[in-house]
Design goal:
The protein contains ten helices and eight strands. By secondary structure, the protein is of the alpha/beta class. Strands 1, 2, 3, 4, 5, 6, 7 and 8 form an eight-stranded mixed beta sheet that branches. Strand 7, helix 9 and strand 8 form a beta-alpha-beta unit. Helix 1 packs across helix 2 and helix 5 crosses helix 6. It is globular, with a radius of gyration of 18 Å. The structure holds adenosine monophosphate, fe (iii) ion (FE) (2 copies) and zinc ion (ZN). The site of zinc ion has 4 residues, from loops. The site of one fe (iii) ion has 4 residues, from loops.
């Protein structure tokens, strides 16, 4: 039995808007000395088989996950579904619809940029998206490559965020629908990076009313002071605490695999809750043995 070295329960691959394939994330998780790693692509679960296959023989514990885009209290709230069964039919069907909608939206944003004098090659961008969930990061990276903006962040700030000229909204779950879908798939729902919301306490309260399980207390965008505040909020409300690096690649950024880690005690609490949820959901039991 080797010592527990932490759980990173939030990262992205090429199956959404990350720049590295699942196998590379596994390699980074091993390199970082993690005990547990989750793949949580935005609105997507189809990278999970590759993730699982790549983890075989590494000794890592893998967690099947996704990060659902929801609308709540006028904010874009991300909800992690941890430990869910990616084969659950209703979840899969809904994600397939979102995928088609994302593709149409990507095309619409590229149309707006062309009208602004910044043409991008749709086929080229689609080739990069591949099996992934077409998102604004793909467009931001293509804009940088073309020299239309100096940086990824500038692409967002000047063109791609709400209210900017190339923004196109994306269909979203409601917070309540997302939490219910995660539960039905046998997973635990966790509100991601609460620092991103105007009124995190309100978002958490609405989440709890809908059956929320946890809060991402430890996240790279949250400093120590915020971490303490969100930790207290989680304790007060009886929510599980989660931790995630939100890695998207490339590796030189702040967000490295293993940059945020859940300790053994909090991991064990999650495992108890997740095993119970799986049993209640009627989905196949969880396998959290080292791969
Ligand atoms: P989408 O799902 O296509 O709306 O894109 C959302 C993703 O874009 C988020 O998960 C982040 O990875 C990235 N993102 C959103 N807002 C910004 C921003 N202001 N600066 C940089 N990246 C952002
Ligand atoms: Fe993202
Ligand atoms: Fe997120
Ligand atoms: Zn994320």
């Amino acid at each position: 039995m080797t010592a527990f070295r932490g759980a990173d329960l939030h990262c992205h691959s090429t199956f959404s808007d990350g720049v590295e394939p699942p196998a590379q994330l596994v390699a980074r998780g091993v390199e970082a000395g993690l005990s547990v790693l989750a793949l949580s692509d935005h609105d997507a679960v189809h990278g999970l088989p590759e993730f699982e296959a790549a983890a075989k023989g590494t000794g890592l514990v893998t967690v099947t996950a996704t990060e659902l885009s929801t609308r709540c209290d006028g904010d874009d709230v991300h909800v992690l579904g941890l430990f869910l069964d990616p084969e659950e039919p209703e979840l899969r069907a809904r994600l397939a619809v979102f995928r088609e909608d994302r593709d149409a939206r990507g095309e619409a944003m590229i149309g707006k940029l062309a009208a602004l004098g910044m043409p991008l090659d749709l086929a080229e961008v689609r080739a990069v998206v591949g099996e992934g969930a077409f998102g604004r990061p793909h467009i931001a990276r293509a804009m940088v490559a073309k020299g239309y903006v100096k940086s990824f962040d500038e692409a967002f700030e000047a063109f791609l965020t709400r209210g900017k000229p190339a923004y196109v909204p994306k269909p979203k779950w409601t917070l309540e629908e997302a939490i219910a879908a995660i539960r039905k798939a046998g997973g635990l729902s966790v509100i991601a990076h609460p620092i991103w919301y105007r009124d995190p306490e309100k978002v958490v309260a609405l989440g709890i009313a809908a059956g929320l399980d946890g809060l991402e207390v430890i996240h790279v965008d949250q400093d120590g002071q915020k971490e303490n505040a969100f930790g207290l909020l989680a304790e007060r409300e009886g929510l599980l605490k989660s931790a995630g690096s939100d890695y998207h690649g490339p590796p030189e950024g702040r967000k490295r695999v293993g940059a945020c880690r859940l300790d053994e005690d909090h991991w064990n609490r999650m495992v108890v809750a997740a095993s119970k949820r799986r049993a209640e959901s009627g989905r196949p039991p969880l396998d959290l043995s080292p791969r």
